[in-house]
Automatic annotation (TrEMBL):
Membrane-crossing residue ranges in chain numbering: none
GO CC terms in record: heterotrimeric G-protein complex
Gene3D superfamilies attached to this UniProt entry: Transducin (heterotrimeric G protein), gamma chain
Record's subunit section: G proteins are composed of 3 units; alpha, beta and gamma.
Places the protein is found: Cell membrane
GO terms assigned for molecular function: G-protein beta-subunit binding
Protein name: Guanine nucleotide-binding protein subunit gamma
Family to which the UniProt record says this protein belongs: Belongs to the G protein gamma family.
Organism: Callithrix jacchus
Keywords noted in UniProt: Cell membrane, Lipoprotein, Membrane, Transducer
Function, in words: Guanine nucleotide-binding proteins (G proteins) are involved as a modulator or transducer in various transmembrane signaling systems. The beta and gamma chains are required for the GTPase activity, for replacement of GDP by GTP, and for G protein-effector interaction.
GO biological process, one term: G protein-coupled receptor signaling pathway
Pfam family, one: G-gamma
Length: 68
């Protein structure tokens, strides 16, 4: 039984490798350029880049109030 299960497993591996070999690839330089362009286009709508004003920041340190 282990011989036939090994053959079945190898057939699955070969099928997966054939599938992966048929995929269209994008060069890393092209993918990086596309990602950079996308980030620059969306930068104006990203609140983390320009920062949040301290008056509207809900996570700012609370002012200490002390009664003497």
């Amino acid at each position: 039984m282990s011989g036939s299960s090994s053959v079945v497993a190898m057939k699955k591996v070969v099928q997966q490798l054939r599938l992966e070999a048929g995929l269209n690839r994008v060069k890393v330089s092209q993918a990086a350029a596309d990602l950079k362009q996308f980030c620059l286009q969306k930068a104006q709508h990203n609140p983390l880049l320009p920062g949040v004003s301290s008056s509207t920041n809900p996570f700012r340190p609370q002012k200490v109030c002390s009664f003497l």
